Amino acid sequence: YTEAWDADKKSIHVMPDTPDILLAKANAANISNKLYVQAWEEAKKKGYDMRADAIPIKTAKASRDIASDYKYKETHEKEKGHYIGCPSAKEDPKLAWAARAMALQNERLYKKGYNDSKTQIHIPADALSVQAAKECQALVSDVDYRQYLHQWTCLPDQNDVIHARQAYDLQSDNVYKSDLEWLRGIGWLTEGSVDVVKAKKAQELLNDRLYRTRPEQLKFTSITDSPDVVLAKTNAMQLSDV
Question: Is 109:103 a contact under the CB 8 Å cutoff?
Answer without folding.
Answer: yes
